[in-house]
Amino acid sequence: MDVIKCFICHQQCKNSILFLYTAPQGRAHGSSFAHRSELRQAKRIVVKLGSAVVTRGDECGLALGRLASIVEQVAMLQNQGREMMIVTSGAVAFGKQRLRHEILLSQSVRQALHSGHNQLKDMSLPVLEARACAAAGQSGLMALYEAMFTQYSTCTAQVLVTNLDFHDDEKRQNLNSTLQELLRMNIVPIINTNDAVVPPPEPNSDLQGVNVISIKDNDSLAARLAVEMKADLLIALSDVEGLYDSPPGTDDAKFIDIFYPGDQQSITYGTKSRVGIGGMEAKVKAALWALQGGTSVVIANGTHPKVTGHVITDIVEGKKVGTFFSEIKPAGPTVEQQTEMARNTGRTLASLHPDQRSEIICHLAELLTERKEEILAASKMDMDQAANAGHLPPAMLKRLSLSPAKLNSLAIGLRQIAVAAQDSVGRVLQRTRLAHNLELEQITVPIGVLLVIFEARPDCLPQVSALAIASGNALLLKGGKEAANTNRVLHQLTQEALSMHGVKEAVQLVSTREEVEDLCRLDKMIDLIIPRGSSQLVRDIQRAAKGIPVLGHSEGICHVYVDTEASVDKVIKIVRDSKCDYPAACNAMETLLIHRDILRTPLFDQIIDMLRTEKVKIHAGPRFASYLTFSPSEAKSLRTEYGDLECCMEVVDSMEEAVEHIHKYGSSHTDVIVTENEDTAEQFLQQLDSACVFWNASSRFADGYRFGLGAEVGISTARIHARGPVGLEGLLTTKWVLRGDGHIAADFSEQGTMKYLHENLPVTQTLAGQRDSN
Question: Can you give the residue ranges of the Aldehyde dehydrogenase domain (predicted)?
Fold first, then answer.
């Protein structure tokens, strides 16, 4: 690389290096980005730092830690090849701190000279004029920025402007030329209004149309500068999360994720921040002006200690941070609106009679067979698109495809769920008479709003929908884009079935460009997340979920242990089925454990021959490899989920050692013992701590449909709530219902007149509220 000296710092710095990687290309200016995900393409970015972001809480001095984290993010983006500009407040606060110090020092010296001793009286400070503070603070503010950016080998340059610089054509062109040259040399311009000479802002003069904007605060300055410099993105950082439909902190205030021109009438503005001369209304007006000029805008919180360190980079990465201003309003509702609709309608769904919920599920089962041609046509479109793209492995293609046989199986499963729905929501689990006319019941209730995220497996949609309907839960579905056409048709059929009892909106399909990570942040709207897909998908969701429980398993490392007293025929059948029936399934065998005494026996040879015939690649565990002269490839890890025609083979000395191995390397999913010794089998079943443990049966039986649950939302390896294949019961929780007659707790105290009975009452099969006379 060629290195030249920088004309600013006169040193060989990174700013003068010709970068050899591909930088973001931006886009032709004239129209803003339509979606958050497109913000990754932003090349030229203006970051506006509001007074509340830059200054301390006492308004005297700067928030140094916060400012340092912002500088780090800006420098990182600059070094990625983007063109960064900063519009900053803070000169007044910095100058106020400096002038107060000087005044106090001067007063103390004069007082000491006057009194002749060091006993100082209380000193009052005069009101400091803002322009004087700005004049005293500008140099210090810039020196601070320069020192901070130097830590990242990034050069800066200060630019002071006033309103006249934008309204005088010659000055505006000179300003534009200066900034263009600084950006060309990889220097970060730091721009501020020249508050030492700027006149007080005139009322009602902030916006005069698309070509004129009065520079009355740093919001309008940032907007004007962004449009003038044809910036791709303006990030305005303040002390609030973004835009709300009413003042933040009020009971009914709702956060606005995306704001569209024309939505201003739906907003009620509060007071401005503790510092600065702007306010949220000024920010919105400036943002809309910039948007009209072709610059995308995000207003976000730059003061929150948990997000300040990555708020700018998160926005540029397209994450759902702050309020995004967009000119293109989607045809359908936002995901937040979908979730709210699902929750509200879900409450009605839960209140339906069980017969009505069963009718909905049965109708959906009928639609799967009656409209199979429509479903299969959509499936063929998805399959053709996947084949043309050529990026899906065979196992994923198999999951993606639907057939008449699959649809018939789905319909059968749904009818099983419809039967189970008769005895789900409102079922009484226990009854206790606490005292005369004071009875307590524990009953089953829906969890609330479920978010199910699934990959290329469209058959998951009707299964999960039926389970949600049966359990009275609202449902939000996010399917893989590979099955978009099939998912759309299946969701339409689901809503058609729901419509028969007026609860169409209880099941929603997210079809917007929502990232999974963004969905996982809706902790105030979603009660449970259920991922259906690869182990990587599950792990990603478990990491991304903030405050929302995740039901699922990250891996399906299933074992089959072949005991010394195993039947030859059963071993061959079970091992073949466990590994070869559907290698990509989470309940497929990944590790085959062999008792040491089986080595070099006809049974061992038959196992090896069968695996070779089925084209299963064997990876030898370290102990198994030590017994062989020419071993197969050694397993890189004993904790591997292959998801293909591959497996690990290892040797153990006993059933107890097999259990120990599984506890150490397994994932608590499904594990199998093959033996004719009942005592050995029972010990295995009792000692092993997995969600599913089988004796002389294939691991592939770990499935909700095969268990008679009708279907499953997934398999859980958690140790609380549901475990194993999760069907209808796993989507229910409980609540306590107490029926009294003016009872108060004080009556049961030591001085009270009543005593607890705590008498268990018989539980009938009727729903809550339909009590017997006991």
Answer: 334-603
Per-10-residue mean pLDDT for the chain, 774 residues long? 34 35 52 90 94 76 87 96 92 74 67 55 61 79 91 94 84 93 96 70 43 63 93 94 84 85 74 54 89 95 85 93 89 86 96 96 97 97 91 81 94 94 91 96 95 91 96 95 95 98 96 77 90 82 87 86 97 97 92 96 96 96 88 88 94 97 95 98 96 96 88 84 88 95 94 94 68 46
Distance between CA atoms of residues 591 and 611, nearest Å:
13
Pairing of strands 617-620, 670-674: unpaired
Q: What does residue 7 show for φ and ψ, rounded to 5 degrees?
A: -75, -15
Spell out the domain ranges in the chain: 36-325, 335-424+444-544, 558-712
Token representation of residue 73: 């993010």
C-alpha dist (Å) from residue 103 to 57, 60, 90, 123, 195: 21, 14, 20, 10, 21
Whether 414 and 368 have beta carbons less than 8 Å apart is answered as yes
The Cα–Cα gap between 413 and 410 comes to: 5
CATH H superfamily, domain 335-424+444-544 = Aldehyde Dehydrogenase; Chain A, domain 1 (3.40.605.10)
Q: What is the DSSP letter of 751?
A: T
| The pLDDT value given to residue 301 | 93
β-pairing verdict for 243-244 and 255-256: antiparallel
SS (H, E, C) 410-439: HHHHHHHHHHHHHHCCCEEEEEEEEECCEE
Please give the pLDDT value at position 588: 95
Cα–chain center distance at 639 = 27
The alpha carbon of 653 is separated from its chain's Cα centroid by a whole number of angstroms, namely 45
**CB of 365 closer than 8 Å to CB of 414:** yes
Q: What crossing angle do the helices spanning 354-370 and 484-498 adopt, rounded to 10°?
A: 140
In the chain, DSSP finds a helix count (H) and a strand count (E) of: 23, 26
For CA atoms 514, 515, 518, 519, the dihedral sign is: positive
Which residue's structure tokens are 């004719």? 676
Residue 44's beta-bridge partner residues? Answer: 83
- For the domain 36-325, what is the CATH code? 3.40.1160.10
Ramachandran class of 392: left when φ > 0, alpha when ψ lies in -120 to 50, beta otherwise: beta
The tokens of 715 are what? Answer: 């398999």
The token duo for 223 is 């907007």
- The residues, any chain, with a CB within 8 Å of residue 646's CB and separated by 6 or more, are 583, 616, 617, 618, 619
Measured in whole angstroms, how far is the alpha carbon of residue 691 from the centre of its chain?
A: 27
Which candidate, 568, 588, 601, 566, places its Cα nearest to that of 681? Answer: 566
Distance CA(617)–CA(494), nearest Å, equals 42
CB-side exposure of 408: number of CA atoms within 13 Å? Answer: 3
b/e code 142-171 from CB counts within 10 Å (16+ = b): bebbbebbeeebbbbbbbbbbbebbeeeee
Helices (H), 328-403: 335-351, 354-370, 372-389, 394-400
Can you read off the two tokens belonging to residue 48? 């506006």
pLDDT at 343 (0 to 100): 96
* DSSP, res 424: S
| Backbone phi, psi, residue 105, to 5° | -65, -45
- Give the 3-state secondary structure of residue 474: strand
- Alpha-carbon 301 to chain mean position: 18
The CATH homologous superfamily to which domain 558-712 belongs is: Aldehyde Dehydrogenase; Chain A, domain 2 (3.40.309.10)
Tokens of 527: 């009660």
Query: What confidence score (pLDDT) does residue 18 get?
Result: 31
**Tokens of residue 694, six digits:** 């089988």
Is residue 387 exposed (0-12), middle (13-18) or buried (19+ Cβ within 10 Å)?
exposed
**How many angstroms separate the CA atoms of 364 and 490, rounded?**
9
